[in-house]
Write a structure and sequence with these properties.
- This protein has two helices and no strands.
- The protein has about 80 residues and is mainly α.
- The longest helix is centred in the middle third of the chain and has 54 residues.
- About 0% of the residues are buried.
Length: about 80
């Protein structure tokens, strides 16, 4: 009878340890996901800042003409066969 209580206690201990490990892993996964999206947002902001400053030209004070509006990049169709090569 004592053997059954030992097995039960060991099983309970293993269950508690695995539950704590799972909670820690879930917390770490949530933290990594948040860090990923924050990094992705910062990368997009930096890319927009770098590309935005490189393509935009300041209008000169002497000319009264309005600067031309930037054209959006054109999307073109790329067949999947060309990507597989």
């Amino acid at each position: 009878m004592t053997g059954l209580w030992v097995v039960t206690g060991a099983a309970l201990l293993v269950a508690v340890v695995s539950w704590l490990t799972a909670r820690r892993a879930a917390r770490r996964a949530a933290q990594l996901s948040e860090m990923y999206w924050e990094l992705k947002y910062q990368h997009a902001e930096l890319r927009n800042a770098v590309l935005g400053s490189g393509t935009r030209k300041e209008p000169e004070a002497d000319s009264g003409a309005t600067p031309p509006s930037p054209r959006p990049p054109s999307d073109s169709f790329i067949p999947l066969k060309s990507l597989r090569r």
